[in-house]
Amino acid sequence: MANPELIERLQRHRALSGVPREELEWLVEHGEIRRFQAGDQLILKGEAVENMWIILVGRMGIDVDQGGGPRRVIEWHAGDITGLLPYSRLTATPGGSLAEEPTEVLAVHRSQFPEMLRACPRVVEITVHVMLDRARVFNSSALHDEKMMSMGKLAAGLAHELNNPASAALRGAKLLISGLTELENASNELGAAGLDAREIGIAQRARELCLAPTDAVLSPLEQVDREDQIAVWLDASGADAELAPALAETGVSLDTLREVAAGVRAEKLNATLRWIAAGCSIRALARDVQGASARIHDLVSAVKRFTYMDRARAVESVDVEHGLRDTVTVVASKARNKGASVTLDVEPGLPPVGASGAELNQVWLNLLDNALDAVPEGGRIEISARCEHRWVLVRIVDNGPGVPPEIRQRIFDAFYTTKQPGQGTGLGLDIARRLVRGSGGDIELESEPGRTEFRVRLPARETSG
Question: In this structure, is residue 125 part of a structural domain?
């Protein structure tokens, strides 16, 4: 006979209040009371889940570690139901469950579930709602964790990309300070030299010529040779050879220098050449700072578009090409570090898709980051986007080792990863598929040794006009 005291406790249980007494009696007859002390480990991460737990007293929680240390995902208290539930596909826990205080549960083993489905329809109905609520919590937590991982990758890539132009801008700004002093001194010396209007015109034309844009990029050895040639010419012309390094950094040619020497009196040549060198140097430095600042602006703009940080996360018409290009920009440093080539081929006039731009960019980041992890040094990744009927099809192909047949069926499963602990959450592809399906599309994998292809298919939106 069922324990009447335990039945009364179940009648007061928050989740089971209102359940017919005969169903509670069934639970008592087929369940087992278990007690845990504070700090007891109920189940370890990855262990098979075998029981449904009806919590009578106490508190327990589950901590999931996605590489940044354990994080509490959910807690259950007296009056809750947890563990393995009927119709659940849960096989192993994604984290460890711990009793936070003395806890007492009524455990029903999974072997009893088939009979419970027949004998306890009201209990089963309640557990289905519990399972759905729990799934929402875990999905929300998993999406948050993956977003944090993506933001970490984004921040690391952005920091690396910004380092070079930021350093160049800082270096150029420092040199500008000393360069302005040199230009001021050179201008004073030129004024004291007393050039006439014709000579000033020659000097100004020479400076304009050395500021003209050029596609020539000299190697360090070629730059040394150029400096030596200018020094020899200066010495032969009776000018100060110490001006050679400054003049060699400008775009001035030897022919231009000869024209200046021919048109300016010898006693004024040094002052004129110094003024030309200082003016060209200061403007070249300003161009360098401008170029570095423009690169920083472009990177920040790409990240801003990538994250949609100034827009609500809502379904809109999304330009797939922009999202793919911004994602390639974000992972550029990782690709360079691995010597990998990333090519992008987008069909002209590709229609937009209906999606959340930020979420779609997270899909591209997950897929491209995985591809970069997979390819060997000097590997190759090819991205293409085409319109096929009423769909936009994006292909991401890498020449990595491929996905072994035995794990292809699990590659999209939550918490499944082939990476080393701390290097992957096992959530990226699961979340990517959920985000794509949430936009009305789908994602597929095709893999063989030396070639892995992810295909993302999204519904195209009609464009007006």
Answer: no
